[in-house]
Structures are given as C-alpha cells and as structure tokens.
Recover the amino acids of this structure.
C-alpha cells in the first residue's frame, strides 16, 4: 500500500521534472508553439466539418474533412524525407508561415460550389502537418536535453489534449457568431505566432548530409522504414502502438452505441471525450518520471493493459463505469505513443530522424482510420457489449510482446548500427 509520504515524494518528483522542462528555454518555446498552433488546429478541425454540413447538409461530406486531414499520413515516410534534407528550424518556421498564408484562401469559401477550396486546403494542411511533426521531433532531439525527452513528450501530450478540451468550444462559438472564415483567420494567426516562437529557438544544426548520387527519392524514403524495422527496441514499440491505435479506432466507432445503450442522446459522447481528455492530460504530466522508473516497454505495456481493462468494463450498463472507463482510456492510450516517440528520438541517428519519425507516425496513426472504418461496419452487425469484451481481451494479448524482457542497450545498438540495407522491412 502506498503511504502518504511516498505519494507526496512522487508528486514532488513529477513537479520537479516538469519544472526542469519548462525552465529549459528551447523546451518551453516548443511547448508554447504546440499550445498556440494546437489551439487553432483543434478549433479548425471541428469547425471544418460543421462548415461543410451547413453548406451541403451532407454527413458524408462533413466526415471527409477528417479524412482529408489524415490522408497525407499514409505517405508520411516520403514527406518526412524533407526533414532530413534541410535544416529543421527554418523548415518549421516556413511551414507554419505557409499554413498561415494557406488558411487565408478559406475566406473565399461561401457556398457549396467553393468547398473544393476547403478540401484542397485540408489536404495541404495535413501534408504540412506531417512534415512539421517530423521536423519538430527531429529538432527536439537536438535542442532538448536527452534526459528530458520523456518529460517533454509527456508535457506535449498534456498541451495537445488540453487544447482539445478548450479549442473546439471556442471554435464552435466563434463559428456560430461570425462564420467559418473567422475561425480560419484565428488558425492563421496561431500559426504565425508559432512561427515567431520557433525563430527564437537556440540550436546549432549541422549541414544536412548529402545523399549519394545513386540514391533516388524512393531509396532515401525507405531508409527510415528499414532502420525502424531493424532496431530490436524500436520495432516492437511502434508495432504495439499501431495495433493499439487500430483497436482504438474500432473502440471509437462504438461510442455512440454506448451512449444509446445508457439511454442518453448523442450529445453524451461529448462528456466521454472530456473524461478521456482529462485522463490524457494527467498521464502527460506523469509520463517523464514513469518512463524513467519503468522504461519505455513496461510503460507502454502497462498502458495497453490498462486500456484493455477499461474497454472491457465499458460493456457494463452504468454511467459511472463508462465515465471511469473513458478516463482510464485517456490515461492508458497515450502511454505507448509517448514511449515509442521518445525511444525513436533517443535511438535514431540524426541524419535519419525525420524519415524514421514520419514512418513511425504513419505506423502509429494510420491504423486508427482503418479501425474506425472496421468498427463502423461491425457495430451495425454485432451488439456492442460482446464486441467491447472481445476487443479488450484481444488488447491484453497485444501487451505481452511489449512486456517481454527488453533487449540490452548494447544489443539494441548493435542492431541499429547495421546498415539499413541489411534489414528487410517486408
């Protein structure tokens, strides 16, 4: 049983670690950029669907907004190559400024006939986001103390989830009062502000290494995937994360059925999202100390197991259980994502970090879209309660490989030091 002094000590350690990150100039500037741009992105992500729904009355077209934002993730490894071919700080600055200018074109959207502009912008927005994430992750590994990477990634998760709790409400209110164009202006302003914060970063970047003349774009792109697959420590973490997000997509498709089963209107889903977001904020604050105490694999494995239990008990028809389940999913789900990203940043050579990060992001997040589509079909054919139980038990099985004995650091280095052409990503 944990005593009060022990709980106080752990809380103090968490606060101390978070304070170290915030006192680090580069880390605090990064987090500032995450907060301001994340606010605009979360607001725009919600409003784009509402905007399309209002102009067309089509639920299908409104849902395509989310697809347009996520579709570029499928070519993430190719887009991530850009982050290894140029300096990352200028790339971050110009990507944010480019998005700020791009969003101004949405001022021309005023009818169903001009919605092609919105969808084109969302596709470019998603592609720029892939490049931005790869460049940011690679630069963080240079600009932030390696010992603080876990704390930084946890606080980044907290900042992102915090914005998802606040920004959609602000965006919806602004849209209701002034329309979608004003929300686009808000998002453009947040990107311009983030670009300003990134210009203040103090980091010395080496000149990007020139690729051999015989290497084409496809070969350079594949380097990240080959390195990731050849690395004994990274491969199971990223695969576990992708599997987790696949199941998360299936689980997400049942959420309206859960609300209906409890006798609530669809609006009840908003309360579940708030509970899940609160759980993610909490685990983000504790991620750094937990990573140091448990290591990436156990931290990820325990998170997967917690999510599995939470999804299983969600089948019980009680409001308090379902709300607690949502909060526990919020705690457990980010663990494998934080662990995988931190390990990739720490164990990948700088020259490959952009491509490897983008490949990892594709493997981590693309399965979520597949899971949503699969779940949307299953929930129409199968009662949601046995579906949730089966989903939870299957998730428990996927935690086993991650919780197996971690390879020694020397073994991981020996694997990662091999030529990437020695590995077969198939």
């Amino acid at each position: 049983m944990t005593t009060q002094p022990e709980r106080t000590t752990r809380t103090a350690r968490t606060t101390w670690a978070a304070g170290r990150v915030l006192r680090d100039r580069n880390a605090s500037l990064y987090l500032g950029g995450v907060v301001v741009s994340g606010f605009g992105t979360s607001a725009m992500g919600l409003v784009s669907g509402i905007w399309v729904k209002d102009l067309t009355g089509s639920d299908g077209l409104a849902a395509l907004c989310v697809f347009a934002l996520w579709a570029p993730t499928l070519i993430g490894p190719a887009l991530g190559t850009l982050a290894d071919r140029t300096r990352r700080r200028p790339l971050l600055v110009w990507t944010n400024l480019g998005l700020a200018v791009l969003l101004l074109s949405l001022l021309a959207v005023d009818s169903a006939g001009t919605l092609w502009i919105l969808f084109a912008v969302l596709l470019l927005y998603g592609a720029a986001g892939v490049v931005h994430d790869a460049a940011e992750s690679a630069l963080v590994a240079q600009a932030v103390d390696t010992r603080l990477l876990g704390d930084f990634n946890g606080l980044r998760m907290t900042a992102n989830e915090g914005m998802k709790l606040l920004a959609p409400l602000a965006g919806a209110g602004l849209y209701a009062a002034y329309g979608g164009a004003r929300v686009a202006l808000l998002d453009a302003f947040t990107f311009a502000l983030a670009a300003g914060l990134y210009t203040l970063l103090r980091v010395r970047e080496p000149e990007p290494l020139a690729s051999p003349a015989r290497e084409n774009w496809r070969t350079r792109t594949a380097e990240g995937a080959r390195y990731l697959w050849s690395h004994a420590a990274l491969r199971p973490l990223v695969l576990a994360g992708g599997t987790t997000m696949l199941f998360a997509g299936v689980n997400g498709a049942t959420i309206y059925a859960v609300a209906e089963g409890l006798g609530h209107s669809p609006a009840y889903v908003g309360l579940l999202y708030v509970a899940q977001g609160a759980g993610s904020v909490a685990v983000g604050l504790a991620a750094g100390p937990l990573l140091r105490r448990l290591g990436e694999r156990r931290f990820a494995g325990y998170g997967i197991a917690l999510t599995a239990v939470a999804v299983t008990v969600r089948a019980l028809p009680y409001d308090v259980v379902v709300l607690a389940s949502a909060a526990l999913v919020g705690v457990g789900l980010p663990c494998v994502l934080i662990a995988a990203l931190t390990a990739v940043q720490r164990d990948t050579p700088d020259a490959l970090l952009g491509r490897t990060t983008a490949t990892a992001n594709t493997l981590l997040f693309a399965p979520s879209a597949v899971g949503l589509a699969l779940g949307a079909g299953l929930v129409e054919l199968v009662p949601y309660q046995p579906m949730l139980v089966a989903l939870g038990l299957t998730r428990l099985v996927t935690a086993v490989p991650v919780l197996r004995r971690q390879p020694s650091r020397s073994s991981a280095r020996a694997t990662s030091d091999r030529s990437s052409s020695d590995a077969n990503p198939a």
User: Anything to note?
Assistant: The two ends are 47 Å apart (CA to CA). The first helix runs from residue 4 to 23. The CA atoms of residues 297 and 402 lie 6 Å apart. Confidence is low (pLDDT under 50) at residues 1-12, 407-426.
